[in-house]
């Protein structure tokens, strides 16, 4: 039997019974314990966490980005864009920053892809790029943009 810090009212008793039916957990009188499966001793250490992170595979498709002859800040910008981690409205909102997470022009969620490709301001800029460089520069997202560039370079 499980003991709670306060007694339940009738509605909470029903909810607890419903929860136990939906999620049948084996109850045990044994004390809970914490273990770190990434070390032989089951104890956490910064060293074992670091070693586990170093064993993670590097994404092979990102390798050309880091080897490209570009300034580091451009590489980091593209990496953040690929991981959808640009400080856009939605990312700032996730971290409880100011704003509502919406594009001030389009009133849709402001993601990195939206800022660079689907926002009306970005679309106007891409129209200018297409006019200046040719219609093969059509891109609606980063994957399309990179594909266009790969076919032109290769």
From TrEMBL:
Highest taxon of source: Eukaryota
Domain Reverse transcriptase zinc-binding: start-end pairs: 44-126
PANTHER family for the chain: OS01G0823550 PROTEIN, PROTEIN, PUTATIVE-RELATED
Identification of the protein by name: Reverse transcriptase zinc-binding domain-containing protein
